[in-house]
TrEMBL record:
The keyword Aminoacyl-tRNA synthetase does not apply. SUPFAM superfamilies: Metallo-hydrolase/oxidoreductase. Signal peptide: none annotated. Residues 13-258 form the Metallo-beta-lactamase domain. GO terms for molecular function: hydrolase activity. Keywords: Hydrolase. Its EC number is 3.-.-.-. This is MBL fold metallo-hydrolase. Gene3D superfamilies: 3.40.50.10890, Ribonuclease Z/Hydroxyacylglutathione hydrolase-like. Residues 263-388 form the Beta-Casp domain.
Length: 474
């Protein structure tokens, strides 16, 4: 049996692992978009496989959760000849449909924008063609027809000798760790894939559940060298900023937040502040059509939420319907709130301030001394969010320069990833004297190196940091 690392190797995005059994049966675990993929502009544009493997030879795909860096290239598999099933949990199937359709719409807009005879248009089209992952709605529909959903903690027998179990990971609605049991020539081996590990006591999401002992473990390391800084609860941390910005003075609070997962956690926390702490019902604008759609999916799968959220729903009949909440649909509605003069909260994507409607809200409010920009998650290098956290005095939004007068705040209580302590809790469920190998993935190299060193110190002897395309015999 062989395990190949085809993505998220010494980097965060593009999760993809290939498990090949001795009889040639091939299982792909995740098929995510590599947001850090380099494009070779020297090679001629030609029709060639998007993947480093033959998609038509893959027998089964397992999806840990819906985020694009885990699901984003599933439609490409079907474009290149894959005909099998996608196994995942029911919420993952619904969220993946939402995210993949959105990606297809984005691809279509980019293609339309690159059509034309000018030199600039030719360059745009050349870049798109070289990148390659240009699936459209019909490709997503082909993929969705083959999604098969499994419940948590129920062993699924693919065929005698191959069993799969999803264990709650807590990172996102429906997110799973994957346990694979393979029996070959009378010997059974177990392989665990962490997916993305959530954190304990997160709003809405269940805590990561204990993972059984395995022979081989693939573990993510997004925060392998970081400890979450905020010790306050989400209600305390968010409540403090709202009070300072919108209650003690007539200000605006702009919260860049990803549409799936993060927006729902913020809305739920706002609702709890109003219902349980008698917070004034400040006007809340949620400016993300996808945020609204994913909120409906969260409401659909109440049984997948944590006990506290289910109890809150039982007592209040809803989770996200905050008093004075308005979901904005059109860009016209989005732009119109710049004329709203009362204290308000604006929740908009993207969370890193890298594209999306939030850029306009930043432009409209960044020079306002009564405004606060609250960053609630990781911001990548090169994004406006990272620039603001670095303390820049001026920013450029859509080719226009703005002076930074607004307050810039950051809290990490809404980060959906386990920190170093949470990752260690996950790995420590494995016996150092029994586990054969631990592979680290889905993290920057510095994060992996520090986490690997800690594991070595705890007695885990064989900790490996694979390079992309590395293959190991199990």
């Amino acid at each position: 049996m062989q395990l190949s690392f085809l993505g998220a190797a010494r980097q965060v995005t593009g999760s993809m692992f290939l498990l090949q059994l001795e009889d040639g049966y091939q299982i792909l675990i995740d098929c995510g978009t590599d947001m850090e993929r380099k494009i070779d502009f020297e090679e001629p544009v030609e029709q060639k496989s998007f993947f480093s493997f033959d998609a038509s030879l893959i027998n089964l795909v397992i999806l840990t959760h819906a985020h694009i860096d885990h699901s984003g290239n599933i439609p490409m598999l079907y474009r290149e000849g894959y005909e099998g099933q996608i196994l995942c949990t029911p919420p993952t199937a619904d969220l993946a449909e939402l995210l993949l359709m959105d990606s297809a719409s984005l691809h279509l807009r980019r293609l339309k924008a690159a059509q034309g005879e000018s030199r600039k248009k030719h360059k745009q089209m050349d870049r798109l063609l070289r990148k390659g992952d240009l699936y459209l709605q019909k490709d997503v529909e082909n993929a969705l027809d083959n999604f098969v959903t499994l419940q948590f903690n129920r062993r699924f027998v693919v065929f005698p000798g191959l069993e799969i179990t999803f264990v709650p990971a807590g990172h996102l609605l429906g997110a799973a760790h994957v346990l694979i049991s393979v029996t070959e020539k009378g010997e059974t081996k177990t392989i665990g894939f962490s997916g993305d590990i959530g954190r304990a006591n997160y709003p809405l999401h269940i805590d990561p559940q204990p993972f059984p002992e395995v022979d081989y473990l693939v573990c993510e390391t997004t925060y392998g060298n970081r400890i979450h800084e905020d010790k306050d609860s989400p209600m305390d941390a968010l409540g403090k900023v709202i009070k300072e910005t919108c209650i003690d003075r007539p200000g605006r609070l702009v919260i860049p937040a990803f549409s799936v997962g993060r927006t729902q956690a913020v809305l739920y926390t706002l609702n709890k502040l109003i219902e349980e702490r008698n917070f004034p019902a400040v006007r809340v604008f949620t400016d993300s059509p996808m945020g609204r759609s994913s909120t409906k999916i969260y409401s659909k799968y109440l049984s997948y939420l944590n006990p506290e959220a289910r109890e809150f729903h039982k007592e209040n009949d809803e989770l996200f319907d905050v008093d004075n909440l308005i979901f904005l649909q059109t860009e016209k509605e989005s732009k119109a709130i710049r004329n709203y003069r009362e204290p308000c909260i604006i929740i908009s994507s993207s969370g890193m301030i890298s594209g999306g409607r939030v850029e306009q809200h930043i432009a409209d409010n960044i020079s306002n001394t009564y405004a606060t920009i609250l960053l609630i998650g990781y911001t990548a290098e090169g994004t406006l969010g990272r620039q603001l956290l670095a303390g820049t005095d001026m920013i450029v939004v859509k080719d226009r320069e703005y002076k930074v007068n607004a307050q810039i705040r950051k809290i990490d209580v809404f980060s959906g990833h386990a920190d170093q302590t949470g990752l260690l809790t996950f790995v420590k469920q494995q016996n150092p004297s029994k586990i054969k190998k631990i592979f680290l993935s889905h993290g920057e190299e510095a994060s992996m190196l520090e986490f690997s060193s800690i594991l070595n110190g705890l007695g885990y002897a064989d900790v490996i940091l694979p390079q992309k395309e590395d293959t190991f015999e199990l």
